[in-house]
Amino acid sequence: MMDFLYFPEDKTEYIPAVITLLIFMLGAAITMYIFYKYSKREEQRINEKYNLNDDNNDKTNTEDHGDKGE
Prior knowledge:
It contains 2 helices and no strands.
């Protein structure tokens, strides 16, 4: 009746499926790492191009709002 569900008696038939799953998981992890590295490089390039340093922005924000508490 449900021929599309197949659970083999011999569990060694799962080995190719597990190997394929591991290969694709490794490929996905490597791809995510490459995207992460490329994104960081692009962020640094944009920050240098438009002079968007977080250190400079933090200093100006603290200087502007420093007198309000007193």
